[in-house]
Amino acid sequence: MIEAQLEQRLIALRKEYESGQKIKEDIELKLAELQRRKASLSETLLRISGAIDLLEEVLGKGEGAQELQIEEDTTAVGIVEVPDVIRQPLEKATKALEDAGLAAGEIVEQKGVLPIGVMIGEILRQEPKPGTKLPAGSAVKLVVASKGKFLPSLDKRSSCNCLSDRG
Predict the structure, then answer these.
(1) Least confident segment among 38-52, 71-85, 88-102
(2) Strands 139-145, 103-110: pairing kind
(3) Of the candidates 144, 146, 133, which has an alpha carbon nearest to the alpha carbon of residue 86?
(4) Which of 8-22, 41-55, 147-161: highest mean pLDDT?
(5) Which of 111, 121, 117, 122 minimizes the C-alpha distance to 149?
(6) Which of 1-15, 40-54, 65-79 is predicted most confidently?
(7) How far are the Cα atoms of 9, 73, 126, 145, 161 from residue 107, in angstroms, in the given order?
(8) Residue 5 lies in a domain
(9) Cα Rg, the chain, nearest whole Å
(10) What is the dihedral of CA 3, 7, 8, 11, to 10 degrees?
(11) Is 93 exposed, middle or buried (0-12, 13-18, 19+ CB in 10 A)?
């Protein structure tokens, strides 16, 4: 009698184990799909971010012309212009900022898809943008390329402002 109960329990446990294995496999497949979707979404968001930066830059040139003239009229002592450090190695960018009378502020690593030609350790973006006038000693936020995949460029003014020609 006990042996029959043990046999039934063994059969029940085997069925439960098989069911658990199937559920586990299903979860692993779903997890892999979610990771693939997450990677795809990250790439899409990076492209959107680059497009936003590009559009802000284009719109800023049209609307910012008045602001630039106002800023140029206010020739206050201790106001310096932010240099363009995009696509420069971090050390060189920091030195250029110091030479201009500014400081490297927050340094953020951006992982993910990198534009063609951008090396790890180079500046992808800076805030505020080049040409902005700030009080001497102000900090400039730098976004540095970190390990990631490479994004093929469509043309020189691709979806990321870091690809534009900046002399």
Answers:
(1) 71-85
(2) parallel
(3) 144
(4) 8-22
(5) 111
(6) 1-15
(7) 61, 32, 9, 11, 18
(8) no
(9) 27
(10) 170
(11) buried
How far apart CA 159 and CA 36 sit, in angstroms, is 22
Question: What's the whole-model pTM score?
Answer: 0.44
Total of domains in the chain: 1
* 133: three-class secondary structure by DSSP: strand
Q: Is residue 25 domain-resident?
A: no
Structure token digits, residue 50:
């680059």
Mean pLDDT of 30-50: 88
- The boundaries of the domain holding residue 95 are 35-162
Domain CATH number, residue 99: 3.30.10.20
DSSP-derived 3-state class of residue 72:
helix
Residue written as token pair 């012309």: 65
Give the CA-trace dihedral at 81, 110, 105, 96, to 10 degrees.
-50
Task: Confirm whether 6 is domain-assigned.
Answer: no
141 touches 124 (CB < 8 A) = no
Instruction: Assess if residue 167 is contained within a domain.
Output: no
The 10 Å CB-count burial string (b at 16+, else e) for 46-65 is: beebbeebbeeeeeeeeebe
Rounded Cα–Cα distance for residues 112 and 10 (Å): 49
